[in-house]
């Protein structure tokens, strides 16, 4: 028994994958369930491919050792061309893999296209399945059915410069309100430094503020979605976040167009005292000039001791509906996404596990991970799980609302009402 691996085009794999327009599919579920033959697998290529390939190769060797007359063929595909790749596979089963890695924000459009197989029974029959983090597992579910296994998760926390907070005489913020107060005090003390680096286009930094205030992006009423951005609670969260993009904290002329990466880069460059960054940003910060002068805590909630809900980004492993080897494919998914291999992926790549007990273990052994694991444990949240979200995201309706506010083109009430109306128009057109 042997395995083959085809390296396609190396490209950057992002933690928080951007959504694409919903693909279409002519796929039908296969009536076959073969137990031998070649199992085709698509995984995302990485800038640093070797660590991932090592874990995958070891998994394949173990899997083939347990399955006679099975060959696993892995193709590494670039993230930025995944939309075309998946669409073609959904429409042409002969070109489709049996197993694929995909971003959790793409799941809804893939399910709507009819491309993914229901894995609910596979997960329920899996001994380790019961230990998957419930909130993370929810990101794979539509209408009560799970269409994949969460392979890793990514969340954001509050990075801060220990020296700058000390110089300004402020303590580490324990509430969202204290972040604003501390950021303003630091910029007053150091006018050339951003109190906190955030931006109008940094949606994953804004979401914890929205959710912590009891707001929502949209409500799911039995598959019918309605925007929640114009509620009083949402507006309170939007106001709290946009208060950070002010001249005395993070000036709009500098910060209005910042996305998440640009915000974190300001912190890495020493231009900001705080930022909201992911576990996947930690290595870059730890290798910066200020590697001995920063720390990380969960983004706090409204009261001291509470943690704001974070967006749970990450990637899943799933089975194509057209696969003629569903059971074999599901078994491989469970092998690659097992506790053992999620630990191996953390050791190799720093990917946060999706099993609650493995999360606890890596946090105990790696102190820097603790704020992110604590954030997951406190409860994460997600974008609306509907294929229409990809259209809303592509149109920039959510981030556009924040940019309208921070640039002074609209107040919170007007911008949130406009965004809610635009979202509802898309929801209703489905």
TrEMBL record:
GO BP term, pick one: maltodextrin transmembrane transport
Keywords in alphabetical order: Signal, Transport
Gene Ontology CC terms, in alphabetical order: ATP-binding cassette (ABC) transporter complex, substrate-binding subunit-containing
UniProt keyword annotation of Signal present: yes
PROSITE patterns to which the protein is assigned, alphabetical: PROKAR_LIPOPROTEIN (PS51257)
MF-aspect GO terms: maltose binding
Domain of life according to the entry: Bacteria
Annotated signal peptide: 1-21
Family indicated by similarity: Belongs to the bacterial solute-binding protein 1 family.
Protein's recorded name: ABC transporter substrate-binding protein
